[in-house]
Design a protein that fits this description.
alpha/beta, Nucleotidyltransferase, domain 5, 2 domains, 12 strands
C-alpha cells in the first residue's frame, strides 16, 4: 500500500492507496482504484516522528495494516511546513524502513514549470496541477481552498503556467474577528439570502458569496490570459461549499492533491 500525505499549514490530509505487482513483478505500480481510505488531522509542528508514527498506525489499524508487517511499500509527501517534512522523513526511515518521496526540486513530475523560479512553486500546487491535467487535460484552472486560496493555470500542452494566491476564507475571517470587536465567529454555511438580515447572515454572505464572486472573477481573468475556455476544478476543504455556488467551477475533486501525489510517486518509482 501507498501512504500519501498532503501537509498544509492548518491540516494534513492522509490517503491510503493500494499497490499491485507490475509485469514480471519487478516494479510496483498503483492499482487503478479509488482511495482505500483518507483521513484529515491538524498540522502540528511540535509533533515528533514517533508521534506521527503512532497517529498513522491508528489509521492503518482500521484496515488491518501495520508498519510492523511491512504493509506500507511507499510514502509520498508534499508539505508546506518544513519542520513537519523533516519529522515525516525521520518517521519513514525509523518505522517504515524506507525513504519518503518528498515532492521537491529534482523530483520527476512530467509537468514543465514555467515559473520564473520553479523552485518557488509549492509542492501542493504542483501535485494539484499534475492531477488536474491527468483527469481533465488542458487548459485547466485549479482552485484550491486551503489556508490560502490558490489558483493554478495549466496550458493545453500540460505546462504549469503560474497562478495567484489569496488569503483563505478562514484567515480572512480570523482577521475580521481580531479587528472588529462587535463581530463574532460564525459557522460557514450558505445563508438564506445574499442580503443578510442579521449580522451572522451578513457575515456568511460576505464570506461565501464574496469568495464565490472572487473565484468566478479570477477564473474569467485567467481564461482571458490563456485565451481558452479552460476547465475549472476545485479542491480543498471548502471546495464542496463554494463549488456548487460558482458559475466558473465545473468539477469538485476533494482529493485532487492526493491523486497528484499518487501520480508523482508512480513517475518516480519507474526507472
Amino acid at each position: 500500500m501507498l501512504l500519501a500525505l498532503d501537509v498544509g499549514n492548518t491540516q494534513t490530509v492522509v490517503g491510503l492507496y493500494d499497490l499491485v505487482p507490475d509485469e514480471g513483478n519487478v516494479l510496483r505500480r498503483l492499482a487503478d482504484t479509488n482511495l482505500i481510505d483518507h483521513w484529515r488531522i491538524a498540522t502540528n509542528v511540535e509533533r515528533t516522528a514517533d508521534e506521527h508514527a503512532l497517529v498513522l498506525q491508528e489509521f492503518l489499524g482500521f484496515h488491518g495494516a501495520s508498519w510492523d508487517d511491512n504493509d506500507i511499500e511507499g510514502i509520498v509527501v508534499c508539505s508546506s511546513v518544513p519542520r513537519v517534512t523533516g519529522s515525516l522523513r525521520r518517521m519513514a526511515e525509523r518505522y517504515f524502513a524506507m525513504a519518503a518521496l518528498v515532492v521537491e526540486p529534482g523530483i520527476r513530475t512530467g509537468l514543465p514549470i514555467l515559473y520564473d523560479n520553479p523552485k518557488e512553486v509549492g509542492a501542493d500546487r504542483i501535485a494539484d496541477a499534475v492531477a488536474a491535467f491527468d483527469l481533465f487535460g488542458g487548459p485547466t484552472i485549479v482552485v484550491d481552498f486551503g489556508t490560502a486560496t490558490t489558483f493554478e493555470a495549466i496550458s493545453a500542452k500540460g505546462e504549469y503556467m503560474g497562478g495567484a494566491i489569496f488569503p483563505g476564507i478562514d484567515i480572512s475571517l480570523d482577521a475580521l474577528f481580531a479587528r472588529a470587536a462587535a463581530l463574532r465567529r460564525v459557522e460557514l454555511v450558505e445563508p438564506r439570502n445574499v442580503i443578510g438580515r442579521s449580522t451572522v447572515e451578513s457575515m456568511q454572505s460576505g464570506a461565501i458569496y464574496g469568495y464565490t464572486s472572487l473565484v468566478d472573477g479570477m477564473c474569467e481573468r485567467i481564461r482571458a490570459e490563456l485565451e481558452a475556455d479552460a476547465t475549472v476544478v476545485a479542491t480543498g476543504g471548502l471546495s464542496g461549499l463554494i463549488g456548487p455556488l460558482s458559475s466558473a467551477i465545473s468539477h469538485v475533486e476533494p482529493w485532487l492533491t492526493l491523486h497528484g501525489l499518487r501520480l508523482i510517486f508512480e513517475k518516480n518509482a519507474t526507472p
